[in-house]
Design a protein that fits this description.
CATH superfamily of the largest domain: Formyl transferase, N-terminal domain
CATH topology of the largest domain: Rossmann fold
Distance between the termini: 31 Å
Bound molecules: glycinamide ribonucleotide
Oligomer: single chain
Largest sheet: 9 strands, mixed
CATH architecture of the largest domain: 3-Layer(aba) Sandwich
Number of strands: 12
Mean pLDDT: 97
Order of helices and strands: EHEHEHEHEHEEHEEEEE
Number of domains: 2
Number of helices: 6
Strand content: 15-25%
Helix content: 25-40%
Structural class: alpha/beta
Strand order of the largest sheet: 3-2-1-4-5-6-7-11-12
Length: about 220
């Protein structure tokens, strides 16, 4: 079965672009059936138009409430019948009612080694904390922000003299292969988001998988 992916994005859309390319190249057995945004003018929306991907974007302030925006966006997501929803730089908090419509079917890529640094400004916060290592995590979305079970992580070193920008660039370069390997593993069935547990190659996952230098996921040592 080819995985139907819905992508949520608010910004430049480099993770979305990486997903599109990986599907086109056959590295992910699936396709992006829709992209959804709270930012009609975003780079991600421009990319969707260029690539001819079905897109939905509305400004949240044109809705009466947060929940009304979420309900409209998740109705649009529902209409494309996704198997997996990927938050790829979606910068708006999603309400619990919307998340409950797709239990265990929504993942997010977050630029830190969760549970360290949930929320915003993760690169600056890693520097201020004096972290020797930083990275990115792919996790299941639950109502509590950036707190769902972590599927996989990639680690990058923090260098002397790093700024938030240099560190962000080093992380972003590894975020893309992390997200692609995670989605490919779901599409291929090696990684399963079951209601009772996340399973990697049939066994419940106890610790996040790690992306190796070979761009493949490995069980934690
Ligand atoms: C990525 O670094 C992603 O991890 C981060 O936003 C960036 C989006 O880049 N996501 C979050 O901070 C979510 N809280 P992109 O638009 O180029 O994919």
């Amino acid at each position: 079965m080819s995985l139907r992916l819905a992508v949520l994005a608010s910004g430049r859309g480099s993770n979305f672009a990486a997903l599109l390319q990986a599907c086109a190249a056959g590295h992910i057995h699936g396709s992006v059936v829709g992209v959804f945004s709270d930012k009609p003018q975003s780079g991600a929306m421009a990319l969707a138009a260029e690539a001819g991907v079905h897109a939905w974007a509305m400004k949240p302030n044109t809705f009466e409430t947060r929940d009304a925006f979420d309900a409209a966006m998740f109705d649009a997501i529902d209409a494309v019948q996704p198997d997996l929803i990927v938050c790829a730089g979606y910068m708006r908090i999603i309400g619990a009612a919307a998340i409950a419509r797709f239990p265990n079917r929504m993942i997010n890529i977050h630029p830190s080694l969760l549970p360290r640094h949930p929320g915003l400004h993760t690169h600056q916060r890693a520097l201020e904390a004096g972290d020797a290592e930083h990275g990115a995590s792919v996790h299941v979305v639950i109502p509590e922000l950036d707190a769902g079970p972590v599927l996989a992580q990639v680690r990058v070193p923090v260098h002397d003299g790093d700024t938030a920008e240099t560190l962000a660039a080093r992380v972003l370069a590894r975020e893309h292969p992390l997200l692609l390997a995670s989605v490919a593993a779901v599409a291929g069935g090696a990684l399963r988001l079951d209601a009772d547990a996340i399973r990697w190659q049939g066994a419940p996952l106890r610790e996040p998988l790690r992306l190796g230098d070979d761009d493949r996921l490995h069980a934690a040592p």
